[in-house]
## 1
Amino acid sequence: MAMEIVVPAVGESISEVQIGEWYIPEGKWVATDTDIVGLETDKATFDVPAPAGGKITRILKKAGERAAVGDVIGYFEEAAAPAGQDSGSSKKSSDGNSSGGQKEDAAKRPLESSGKAPSSSGDSKVMPAASRELAQRGMDAGQVAPTGPGGRILKEDVIRATEHGTASGPGFSQPMRSEDVIPLSPIRRRIAERLVSAQQEAALLTTFNEIDMSGVMDLRNQYKDEFLKKYDIKLGFMSFFVKAVVDALNQVPQVGAQLKDNKLVYRNYYDIGIAVGGGKGLVVPVLRNVERMSFAEIELAIADFARRAKDNKVTLEELEGGTFTITNGGIYGSLLSTPIVNPPQSGVLGMHGIFDRPIALNGEVVIRPMMYVALTYDHRVVDGREAVTFLKRIKDVVEAPARMLMEI
């Protein structure tokens, strides 16, 4: 029985999606609940599972095309599992197909053109369209670098090898100049829109300071083994900065206020956004009620966000809201930068790399592990005095973490 593959409702504010990747080609049998296609929105990526065991009979919307919620993007037909294939498996293997699936044998499929099959030991990983393209061009699969799931060679790989001159053999010795035009993903477009909006609508200003990380590093070294043993997570720097931000927001609540309809909204809770790199771009999942969280809970939550962000599994609810944001460019080696506020928030803290630098201490020049920190704030809400006081408080409590406990 033929069934429509429909774009589901993925959020109240989302009316359109972009087709990400079809994990399963037309005609290949999959088990119930196997993910068959990824849908991208401006906030996250969602997978659509197979409604039953069967095959995709027709794909209407290709990767990169846009579709509205409720649109039909393909057709699916329920069918029994092929002989020897486990019909009960619904898990995806590492190459994106169902774990019970059999690899396609390109050597056994007829070609629509010359009928010349590619002579390579990797034929079982050549997709049908790529196999035809290889035959038409008189190429061997060994001449092409695969980029498909599980090391599969796609049609695009064959074309790219020809255009870029990366294929070896007769006719492919000279490199060719070419350009790749890749449409922006919905997430990337949304990031661009929000960054431009923040620059145009807010009065952004950045203040800087530097932090001697010796105290935190000594504390981590002293307790890292016990911490790891008890909580099964490493004690990182981010939990100290999250705690420091909450402490500073208690001292200077204006930095956590938000401008709404010519009114300032002060919240008596702290939802801190943590910027993490995802599979489709930077995302900022939110830690809720951080004032109630322990160091271990913060580290575990951030590690979980980082893992799921790489697989585009962070939910819309986890990306919404937030009273303040922390971004850490130091993990990429950044020395100094000016972060941009995430509207409608009024402040964002930028952490950077830790580098040994000479500083003056008690009249002597000493080497210390130093980190530059930056606070970008909306000057419509936060005055310069408040911003500097806020960042100075973060410096004080990170350099002497006991101050947070003593509230001094």
## 2
Amino acid sequence: MSDEPNHEDTPEEAVELGALPLDSWHRARGARMVPFAGYEMPIQYEGIVAEHEWTRLSASLFDVSHMGQLTVHSPEDDPTLGARELEKLLPGLITSLKPGRMRYSMLLTEEGGVIDDLMVTNTGPHLGLVVNGACKWDDIAHLREHLADEVTLTHHDDFALLALQGPKAGEVLEALVPGTGALTFMTAGLFEYDGGHIWVSRAGYTGEDGFEISVHENSVEKLADALVADERVKPAGLGARDSLRLEAGLPLYGHDLTLDIDPVSADLTFALSKKRREGGGYMGHTRVMDALENGPATRRVGLKLEGRMPAREGAEVFAGDEKVGVVTSGGFSPTLGQPIAMAFVDAAHSEIGTELTCRVRNKSLSATVSPMPFVAHKYFRGN
């Protein structure tokens, strides 16, 4: 789940922007700030490629406090009601989610389109949701409209969210917050820090090992200072987070996922458990089941391009003279040293190895349908 801007995106129109809890912290460290998702966000510090490569080599600290942190509370006399209600809106199994476990899922429309992708965590006392920043107000409205009145939805807008990502993230955080090193990918827990508590999830959106840390806004600066005081950690902006998630083959909401795209065509069937595929019972399941049974008309695929020129979002994809798709995310891969992209193409042209072309500035760039992730995930699943 990610909603970072491409570093060449056109800035948003002038609107009243919110400030992150670490706004002055970012500026003091030389961050270049850009408008995004209603906030001024750090897009880079020393440079996107340098920050990208440091994340692959060591550990980077990203501020993703623009994202929405929500909790769903069940009534005391019906402790599973919240999970059952969420299963009416999400295509994943929530009732079987054990305490300390996380699951990727999506809010769907009645027509099966993706309203947002999100993370659900069973914290024990309640269910925690992390939703994309650009969608959070619509998500909250959707949830409040459809959840039972007995279920309480809380938006924790006084909490910041930091992402510590990279191969050295585990040892860095364990030294600062003992016990976090025992977490494995898609698990989470509550930990003591600085006389209080922080919520730590072993997850992220870079393809690297790492953590997302929920911390009260009054304590986030001290935590950020402590993390970057370690020479293995540098701050990084949303530009590097975007290039990392592209290499990891992870979809970006508003680009690779929209209201017009269903989970099957988006190649996210891993988020549809067997029980939910067979039983349905969630909003949008009719379209999802049809796509599962008959195949989607289009599919999200990875493309590797020849040369150095990237194909950005909106570039048309051709098989010979026939237009067969469009690029939804694209850029130059620092790790691979070549342009890569995600695109939705007609199912008939989605097989690995299919030769296609992308039209960019009146040029035809040779492209090949390639497996994703482009760069292997390095999630920590235990020794």
